[in-house]
């Protein structure tokens, strides 16, 4: 039995929603009758919006915006009158070995920090004047916000920063009646996660299946999650049922990290 949520009349913005976790979360909000807008930096966001619109039988707005572009963010967020729920999901995950002498690694490192930290900051900063009392901000963190992984220093550092950002905002915005929380997914079958798995295999010389098997063995519950498996946690945190919850990071990882 699935939980039932109704966001009819609520304006919801999900960033990084053209695919993966973001798309799964957006689909869940769309099915829960939200007035939904999805945002991503690639042209695929338009197709995602059309697909969701057909699925639920009402318009889902799609915005293409690179959240590291300050002016573009101002323009995109400026098109809203109200944002009841902001889901800061946009992010980049890439391998960044510190010992790799390739100068391109530094560019990748900077891009990850720019998207995962600065982009999240820009979107939140511009959205805040449009978020009313009772509004929700939900950030996508990671179980690597609590732990770490070799050769992913930029991504791990950025997700630690996202969790710290969330905690600080929860304290700052609490007096305004805005709840701020984070979701920390474990391994989910997404394009980004499978690309990371491939690059881990290339870096270590181990088979992808062996690495994935080791990851699964570290979970209390077997199996690899799909985006749909974690979407309801976002709905819960955006709902009135979570009105007394703020400043928290919720692991959803099949028991990989106990905290």
Word description of this protein:
Helix content is 44%, strand content 14%. The chain is α/β, with parallel strands linked by helices and 259 residues long. The chain has one domain (11-188, 225-252): Rossmann fold, CATH 3.40.50.720. The protein has a seven-stranded parallel sheet with strand order 3-2-1-4-5-6-7, with helices on both faces. Helix 1 links the parallel strand 1 (11-15) and strand 2. Helix 1 (20-31) packs across helix 8, helix 3 (70-77) runs parallel beside helix 4 and helix 4 runs parallel beside helix 5 (153-173). The model has no long low-confidence stretch (mean pLDDT 95).
The number of domains:
1
Structural class: alpha/beta
Q: Judging from the principal axes of the Cα atoms, what is the shape? A: globular
Q: How far is it from the N-terminal to the C-terminal residue, by CA?
A: 27 Å
Question: Could you give the topology of this structure?
Answer:
Blueprint: E1 11-15, H1 20-31, E2 35-40, H2 44-56, E3 61-64, H3 70-77, E4 85-88, H4 104-127, E5 136-140, H5 153-173, E6 179-185, H6 191-204, H7 208-217, H8 227-238, E7 249-252
Parallel strand pairs: 1-2, 1-4, 2-3, 4-5, 5-6, 6-7
Helix pairs in contact: 1-2, 1-8, 3-4, 4-5
Key descriptive features of the protein:
single chain; 259 residues; alpha/beta; Rossmann fold; seven-stranded parallel β-sheet; globular; EC 1.-.-.-; KR_dom; SDR family oxidoreductase; SDR_fam; oxidoreductase activity
